[in-house]
TrEMBL record:
Record key words, sorted: Signal
Organism: Litchfieldella anticariensis (strain DSM 16096 / CECT 5854 / CIP 108499 / LMG 22089 / FP35)
GO cellular component: cell envelope
InterPro entries per record: Peripla_BP_I, SBP_2_dom
Principal subcellular localization: other
Any Pfam family hit: Peripla_BP_4
Protein name as catalogued: Sugar ABC transporter substrate-binding protein
Cellular localisation: Cell envelope
Signal peptide, first to last residue: 1-26
Family (UniProt): Belongs to the bacterial solute-binding protein 2 family.
Record's keyword annotation contains NADP: no
GO molecular function annotation: carbohydrate binding
Organism phylogeny: Bacteria, Pseudomonadati, Pseudomonadota, Gammaproteobacteria, Oceanospirillales
Length: 319
């Protein structure tokens, strides 16, 4: 695990060095199609933006579309990439199982696919799967949450979309840590599908059933921010510790404001850029430069003590 932001950036650059070395600046290298989940979410917006800018820097045309978790929309977007003769597809899949067919369709058409952020449940189709180390990040967040709340409390959990393996991985990671504290009691849990509005609505319901909770642990920042809005409305935020996951700009602001105890930052800007550079390497040489298909990126903890280091969305300032 990296202990400082600077070490994370140095390590990430070292991992991606082969792809920087082979980069070219010639124009019109062809199309790279970038498919993310939901551009209205700042995390996925950053993912698409960084990937597009990197592709254009390398001389490719690039477009970004979003499927919003709909595998039918995702399949149509893959069809469009095939029709447009994309050189490569950067895909944040809609569903760990349900996206396999769309990936296979692209591969059968001769288009290499590079998975980012959320994995698919089949090896050997995508050229690479670049994802955050969600288990490590969840453990990091849960440990901080316990430190903030103490060893005795009643709490609720907000979970992400069940179709995304990240939701289960994070929830299991929380459970692994929190189960070590018998006096921590989870009195409610609900699925809010990574969404702020659903987080708000589900938090209202959870509060009605459990008005005296002391904590909320959330699978991502958007759900946590929705929970914060509901807690504010109920006049209970000062008495409840809320933890998030992603490192979104709004979450960083909430940490600064003392409304969110912490957020776990996923290095989305790093792995989105690397996926495109890897695609460029593969287009030119037929190699990815990785020894294994799946590559994990460790997460970082953003707290009141270090929040001033985070000056841009999902990017750690070098200090």
């Amino acid at each position: 695990m990296f202990k400082t932001g600077k070490r994370l950036l140095i390590a990430a650059l070292a991992v991606s060095a082969p792809f920087f070395a082979g980069a070219v600046s010639a124009q019109d290298q062809g199309l790279i199609s970038i498919i993310v989940n939901d551009n209205s979410n700042p995390y996925w917006f950053t993912e698409g933006k960084v990937a597009r800018e990197t592709a254009e820097e390398l001389g490719y045309q690039a477009n970004v579309s979003s499927h919003k978790g709909d595998t039918n929309a995702e399949s149509r977007q893959i069809d469009t990439a095939i029709t447009n003769q994309a050189k490569a597809i950067i895909l944040d899949p809609a569903n760990a199982d349900g996206s396999i067919g769309a990936v296979r369709k692209a591969v059968d058409a001769g288009i290499p696919v590079f998975i980012v952020n959320a994995e698919i449940n089949q090896q050997g189709l995508a050229e690479a799967q670049l994802v955050s180390n969600n288990a490590q990040g969840a453990a990091l967040g849960a440990q901080q949450w316990v430190q903030e709340i103490g060893g005795e409390a009643k709490y609720v959990e907000l979970k992400g979309a069940p179709s995304d393996n990240n939701a289960a991985t994070r929830s299991n990671g929380y459970e692994t840590v929190l189960s070590q504290y018998p006096s921590l009691e989870r009195v409610g849990v609900d699925v809010a599908n990574w969404d702020r509005t659903q987080g708000y609505n589900k938090m209202q319901s959870l509060l009605q059933a459990n008005p005296n909770i002391q904590g909320v642990i959330s699978g991502n920042d958007e759900m946590a921010l929705g929970a914060i809005a509901a807690l504010k409305e109920a006049g209970k935020l000062d008495d409840v510790v809320v933890g998030g996951f992603d490192g979104s700009p709004d979450a960083v602001d909430a940490v600064k404001a003392g409304e969110m105890a912490y957020t776990v930052l996923q290095p989305v800007a790093i792995f989105s850029e690397q996926a495109v550079r890897m695609a460029d390497e593969y287009i030119r040489t037929g190699e990815t430069g990785l020894s294994e298909e799946k590559h994990l990126f460790d997460c970082l903890l953003v707290t009141a003590d270090n929040v001033d280091q985070y000056t841009a969305p999902f990017v750690l300032a070098q200090q």
